[in-house]
Task: structure prediction
Amino acid sequence: MRADLLTDPVEGLDEALAAVDGFDQVLVGGLLRPQPAQAVGLAGLADAVAGSPLAGRAAEAAEKTAAGAADEDHYTVLAAARSALLGSVHDALVERVEEAVGRPRAEEPAAAADGAERPVNLLVAARGWLCDLARAGWQGIDHELIGGAAPVVTALLPEPGLRRLATLLDGFAAELAASCPGATLERMPVRRWADLWSRAMLLTLPGADRATAVGEATGRLLPLGVDLHEHATAVQAQVHAVFEPADGGTPRLVRAGVSAPKPDTVVGAGLWQLLRPHMSLLAAVSEGRAMELDAMPVTAEGDLIWDDARATQGDPAEPFTTARVAMRTAVSAPVTPVDRHPARIAVPVLLEGYAVEEEAEGLAFRVAGERLAVDTGRMPAAGPLTADAVASSAACLGLLRWDAGRFLLQPLAVERTVRKKAVTVHAGAWAGGTADKAGVRAEKAATDAVKVLRERAGRLLRK
Result:
């Protein structure tokens, strides 16, 4: 891997992010009565997209907003301009990663699928709440304002095509409610809240959330590793893998995800109990096996719409062997415009021959003379992979991400030597079940917690 390309500056990156940061500060104080400093941030956003098709509308929106005379359409344009800037950052960073790892990307764009029209009145209601939020700003939020999201979310949820927006608004409102009143906040996640706001604004546009075209995948699926995401009320496992088509076509990098609601008392290895019933692939990950797919639905973005009925267990397939052989020629899937954001970057890579550096700011690998930070904080507690295992490793399979202005490596699995024997440690080793003592203890504790919760729920239902 050309690690030097990951540390070299990207032309225009700092300027684009500076324009985004300037607008994000505008949202802190709110758009109802912008101050002179906020007008500068608005103008900076418009100037940053001056060479794009958004130029005229962005300039008008910035001018109207600075004068306190903007309407919902102007706010939507500002959200679009901000998203376009971050989309350009995403594209520049992905291009740099592809050059560094030497991996091609599929040329065809992710085509949109035909879908049913969304209820416009619900989209208008959601946009109205988001605009009220922008007018108040993060410093002006209170429980009355945030409470206005509840009826909107309730109305959106019954519509399958609007659940993505509903889930986003529900989670966003919960974060804001936990921070009310905004006037007393000493610190706030300015970039994150602006990301959530602008994305939600775009999803209120008819057709913006239209799913990409779905095809069929028949062939062999070779798992690389599992990325686990945990929230107080939900959990998601995303399996990164290489798909080899049965017709001998070019191998592709794909993902398969499964989500489940969870009580906040189920943590650690107990999370797998919630996910296993919904995806047989998790067992294959634990056992180091491939899966044979038969007409498995797959989007143009490389996301498998998992159906256990279309998958059967295959031959043994060791992830590091897959990474060394099949991943080298696998192509990455294109990304739809609405999903282009630096936070979405998660590129599977294999690193070998590095030196480990343990410093006050954290763990890092020295690759070809360049320092690559290792994000051990993303490794789940629901697996045996630890920071110590990473620090003593000789090879690492992980996801290359970008955060806080630099590239980071999130380990998915490592190879290390223990008592003169080569062993592998996977973050998702317990996904399908385990005989590991620590994993068994953690699962038993989670099982006991679930039993207690089910018993209490049963008592309430009987009442």
